[in-house]
Amino acid sequence: MAKKLTTIQKDVLREIGNIGAGNATTSMSQMIQKEITMEVPSVNIVTINEMMELIGGPEKLIVAIFFRIQGEITGTVYFILSLEEAQFFIDQMTQMNQLKLMDENNHLNEMAMSILQEIANILTGSYLTALADFTDLHMLPSVPYISVDMAAATLVTGLLELQTVTDHAIIINTKIQSMTTEDSIKGHFLLVPDPDSIQKFFHALGIE
Amino acid sequence: MTQIKKVVKVGIADLNIAKSPDVIRTSGLGSCVGVVVYDLNEQIAGMSHIMLPDSQLTKQTSMNAYKYADTAIDVLIEKLLAQHARKLFLKAKIAGGAQMFQMNSTSDVMRIGPRNVDAVMERLKRHQIPIVASDVGGSNGRTIEFDPSTGELHIRTVSKDEKII
């Protein structure tokens, strides 16, 4: 895989992140009845160790929900939240402050986990739907896989297939956050297309 | 003069060597396996953060040998011997190989943790290096740190207190 992208290729991938995350952000706003904004997506070619640094280091405790994408485009999409952000989501969805994702003994609550899985399912669904409409390429998410643990431990699983092909991954990273300052949600959507699929994106959008 | 203790870091799909008084650490082992091979008399240890079981899986023309159990362990031993570790005295401790995601899928990729552990054990056996302690499986990420002067492997997870093997 090429270790460099041209400016126009980067722009196209950024636009892919924009369209996907834009749609997901709208879904999220509706779901929690709060205004959500997104940053301009960043596109990086990184090693797996550099990817961990993007998230905040290999040991950072994160909530990661990932999906394998199947269809004309294959790859992995992650929805990543910090523990506090995930808890905020759960509070918003359940309208009560009883359901804790992690208790004092660091044990995870199954019900809370499944709420997060469902939220990620909806958001990733709208991310991929927008992308499929835009590129006219078929893509289907797997069931959601959730893990709350150290970043390196959780993120590697979704990259194993890619890792047999290349040491570098192209990551389209979109950060989202809620407008209100006091109870902010920040999340990451990471789209990591398999190397073949990058070419398909370029082809579908008229650049080579 | 007292020497300053350094922490030698090992990334993902990476390996490194440390000598006392330094310690060696790798962070966030999930399905990956951390392999420590050491010679306690010489106070030297090598650590490898292995991602995949078998270099036959690669589709790369120039692959990273540190990524796969078979090739990484070979390199690890070679490097230790080059730094005057003695093959007969080498011992191993391993940790990791968890299943991070609960799933019904029986796909090979999802069972990678146990496959990594099997591959590591097989390779160490081929080199006739005994595994004196291990902490593998489960569903937790692990950060491990090895002290070549004591032979202790410290294991930290998100949900439990530190344990030493």
Give an overview in words:
- The complex is a heterodimer of chains A (208) and B (165).
- Chain A has 208 residues and is α+β, with helices and mostly antiparallel strands.
- Chain A has helices spanning 7-32, 48-55, 83-94, 110-135, 151-155, 160-163, 195-204; strands at 36-38, 42-47, 61-71, 75-81, 139-141, 145-150, 168-178, 186-193.
- In chain A, strands 1, 2, 3, 4, 5, 6, 7 and 8 form an 8-stranded antiparallel β-sheet that branches.
- In chain A, a hairpin with a 7-residue loop joins β7 and β8 (186-193).
- The mean pLDDT of chain A is 84.
- By secondary structure, chain B is of the alpha+beta class.
- Chain B has 2 helices and 10 strands, in the order βββββαβαββββ.
- The mean pLDDT of chain B is 90.
- Chain A binds chain B through residues 48-49, 52, 57-59, 61, 66, 105-107, 143, 145-154, 156-157, 160-161, 163-167, and chain B through 11-14, 27-32, 51-52, 57-60, 64, 67, 98, 100-101, 103, 109-110, 112, 140-143, 158-160.
List keywords for this structure.
heterodimer, A: 208 residues, alpha+beta, eight-stranded antiparallel β-sheet, 7 helices, 8 strands, 26% strand, globular, B: 165 residues, 60s Ribosomal Protein L30, Chain: A, five-stranded mixed β-sheet, 18% helix
Write a compact overview of the structure shown.
The complex is a heterodimer of chains A (208) and B (165). Chain A is of the alpha+beta class and 208 residues long.
SSE blueprint and pairings:
The complex is a heterodimer of chains A (208) and B (165).
Chain A: H1 7-32, E1 36-38, E2 42-47, H2 48-55, E3 61-71, E4 75-81, H3 83-94, H4 110-135, E5 139-141, E6 145-150, H5 151-155, H6 160-163, E7 168-178, E8 186-193, H7 195-204
Antiparallel strand pairs in A: 1-7, 2-7, 3-4, 3-5, 3-6, 4-8, 7-8
Chain B: E1 7-10, E2 14-19, E3 23-29, E4 33-39, E5 44-50, H1 69-82, E6 91-96, H2 112-126, E7 131-136, E8 142-147, E9 152-156, E10 163-164
Parallel strand pairs in B: 1-3, 6-7
Antiparallel strand pairs in B: 2-5, 3-8, 4-5, 4-6, 8-9, 9-10
